[in-house]
């Protein structure tokens, strides 16, 4: 057990678990609503990268796939490329639970460095997951990038 901060976000999406899984793991789909492509083979132990879609393909986040149970659960580590901390990377768990014609998506980002990183994660996940929900329910992302809203 760690005393490092964590953040949990729960949203409900009119979608199927398989569609939510695909939206989280397909590089082309993540580019549509996240502004980055999540790139991996999504096998436990494999590397993954959160690559920019601006043409540079630079990775802003890197990690390892800890657990992959399509279409229900994905666990990854998260770290800034080239930066190692004594406490190690943070960890993100995506839980995908079906309820009739909707899905409950629970995202938990744990082992964050401090409260400032927790606050940044809270703002970032709220924006990205709102855009994901809109994308899956309407076929298009929000008309404005929510992470740019002041």
Automatic annotation (TrEMBL):
Gene3D superfamilies: 3.30.530.20. It comes from the Bacteria. Residues 16-137 form the Activator of Hsp90 ATPase homologue 1/2-like C-terminal domain. Transmembrane segments: none annotated. Pfam families: AHSA1. InterPro entries: ASHA1/2-like_C (IPR013538), START-like_dom_sf (IPR023393). Belongs to the AHA1 family. This is Activator of Hsp90 ATPase homologue 1/2-like C-terminal domain-containing protein. It comes from Streptomyces blastmyceticus.
């Amino acid at each position: 057990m760690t005393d490092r901060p964590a953040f949990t976000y729960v949203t409900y999406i009119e979608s199927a678990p398989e569609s939510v899984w695909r939206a989280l793991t397909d590089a082309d789909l993540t580019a549509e609503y996240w502004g980055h492509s999540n790139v991996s083979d999504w096998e436990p132990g494999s590397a993954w990268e959160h690559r920019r879609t601006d043409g540079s393909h630079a990775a802003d986040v890197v990690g390892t796939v800890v657990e992959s149970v399509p279409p229900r659960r994905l666990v990854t580590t998260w770290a800034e490329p080239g930066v190692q901390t004594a406490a190690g990377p943070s960890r993100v768990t995506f839980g995908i639970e079906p309820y009739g014609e909707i899905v409950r998506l629970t995202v938990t980002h744990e082992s964050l460095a401090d409260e400032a990183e927790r606050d940044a994660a809270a703002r970032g996940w709220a924006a990205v997951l709102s855009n994901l929900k809109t994308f899956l329910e309407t076929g298009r992302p929000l008309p404005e990038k929510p992470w740019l809203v002041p």
